[in-house]
Amino acid sequence: MRRLFPVTDMTAGPAAPTTPTAPAGPAHEAGAGDGGWSLDALADAYAYPEGEGSWLRANMVSSLDGAGQHEGRSQPLSSDTDMRIFGTLRGLADVIVVGAETVRLEGYRPARAREAFAERRAAAGQGPAPVIAVVTGSLDLDFSLPLFTAPLVPTLVLTGSGAPAERVRAAREAGAEVLFAGDGARVDPARALAALTERGLRRQLTEGGPRLLGQFVAAGVLDELCLTISPTMTAGDAQRIAGGPPVAVPTRFRVASVLERDGFLFTRYLRS
User: What is the pLDDT of residues 156-167, one digit of tens each?
Assistant: First the structure.
């Protein structure tokens, strides 16, 4: 894998190293097919900012022609390296915030503890695995799934105060914790994130779907976008990575880093 931006040595010749190195060993999974980039090196490259405030990061993939999914799923646009970064971002997060539709389409399972991140998470005061927080107004979910019945840490359900009482009861009976973060059936994006922060879950990661990401963008609460640009073309009418009503003024982001592997670009953008 190559780092294309930021350029750290403008005078380096063709033979100069272009990737960081990290100690070899089981905890670092050195190399692993990514040109010497261990999981530890990736974790350093994608570390959350220091400080006590919350930080919402999105991780999405897009084809060259703007599709955020193919036949309803993001996996056909992905790659092995994309999945390693996906796993790294999960390994750094306190909580993964996801929309109900994505849970249904992608077959979400509980986040797992990974030895490669155990030491780093312990040093940061984190639990063994990130919490999954599902955003849903209707609670139209299958609460018999392992995501709710057998997670390492209890799954959270974020909903509105007017959610159907029987569905709230079903979620709780399955083992999920229900948090109210909105009036009526609507979940307020800012209130949802504030509820997570109050629980100490400040390193926040959303993996979509497009509707949920669009709500975070419209609410002005997205701090960072990690976008994989897949060297694929899909045509068709697939959703973009963010959907919903347009914002009055486009939100401006600045590029923080760009990595490349096998034609895939792994970009990071920070809100200006």
Answer: 999 999 999 999
